[in-house]
Amino acid sequence: MRTSPPFRADHVGSLLRPPALLRARETLTGDALREAEDEAIREVVRRQEEIGLQSATDGEFRRASWHMDFIYRLGGIGQATDEHITVRFHNEQGDIEFTPAALRVHERIRLNEPIFADDFTFLRDTVTTVVPKLTIPSPSMVHYRGGPAAIDPAVYPDVEEFWRDLSAAYAEQVRRIGALGCTYLQFDDTSLAYLNDPAQRAELSSRGDDAEHMHLRYIKQINAALAAKPAGMTITTHMCRGNFRSSWAASGGYDFVAEALFGELKVDGFFLEFDDERSGGFEPLRFVPPGKMVVLGLVTTKRGELESKDTLKRRIDEAAKFVDLDQICLSPQCGFSSTVEGNQLTADEQFAKLRLIVETAQEVWG
Fold first, then answer.
1. What is the longest distance spanned by two Cα atoms in the chain?
2. How far is CA 182 from CA 111, 232, 234, in A?
3. What is the pTM of this model?
4. Beta bridge mates, 270
């Protein structure tokens, strides 16, 4: 058993919103909505503790989106009133689209107040046997979602100033959330997984980005945000290829980014999507240095069918050919509800998958 995160049995963060909470979001506002969220979070924390997990999140129950709720609260960033971002997702039945409001960097980026501070303190005060875990989008997502066109050149005539301010705002977020007692923080980052897909790199090139080297820029800026992280805080990153209503946006193994990502990114652990053939093989794990943890996302959150323990154990054995077994943990491949809509499975199926992860981890690592 590991006594510090990431844990042998862990999970990414978001959880399916209970029907009562979905109804509350449609009818309530202000304090009444907050009370409904509080009640739902107390219950979902209890379920995580009962299952045997060593960390718990609030399920991201107060958010509509895993990343945009955070990004729009950064000083200097706002929603475009007349434009939306279109992200195309794929599934076995066809394509669907996610169309959040576009973002605009209209002033210098800053942290006006620690984001999700009240959310974290409620989680901190609610858990009883587990480590409270906070998830936030990485700095990369601010740029990946908007691109050069989102940055007002009058505000940032020199793009290097944009990157410095962005990392500085995140560094202050890390410092201030640490002061509230957060010891387990996760930077969620789809961009570093998307960049493995040639089609995604082509999209970035078409908007004027240096797609072949974008991952190096993102690694640099995340490292700057983490350079002064508080002592005793574990920071991980989660990288998947999209998760919206059981659909995905990108494909491809981690090969394109692996050497720089695993060798240079200054996080303590990597949550990696490995639930199907879109994720590629385990060979890129050979670049993971000693001391860094790899959390294998072998259990899919996109459908309810339960994986077998034997299959999970075989896949862990396969991964252990490229990175030491003692550096490996187990988790779902993504959250169960990256947006408020959630994936296409039931709450019972969700918790069965989390229980499977706990039981499998106990049998593999003791």
1. 58
2. 18, 9, 9
3. 0.95
4. 237, 294
- Strand, helix or coil for residue 219: helix
Structure tokens at 341: 């809509």
List pLDDT tens digits, range 354-363. 999 999 999 9
Positive/negative CA dihedral, 3, 37, 102, 107: negative
Displacement of CA 168 from its chain's centroid (Å): 20
Mean pLDDT computed over 288-317: 98
Q: Are strands 293-299 and 269-273 parallel, antiparallel or unpaired?
A: parallel
Helix (H) or strand (E) segment spanning residue 55: strand 55-56
Instruction: Quote the tokens at residue 24.
Output: 């509350």
Helix (H) or strand (E) holding 281: none
Sorted by sequence, the CB contacts under 8 Å of residue 152 that are 6+ apart come out as 104, 105, 106
- Please state the separation of Cα 187 from the chain's center in Å: 6
Backbone dihedral angles phi then psi of residue 243, each to the nearest 5 degrees:
-155, 100
Contact 152, 105 (CB under 8 A): yes
Give me Rg for the CA atoms of the chain: 19
* Distance from C-alpha of 255 to C-alpha of 89, rounded to nearest angstrom: 22
Q: ∠ at Cα 71 (172, 95), nearest 5°?
A: 145
Are 270 and 287 within 8 A, CB to CB? no
Alpha-carbon distance of 56 to 284, in angstroms, equals 29
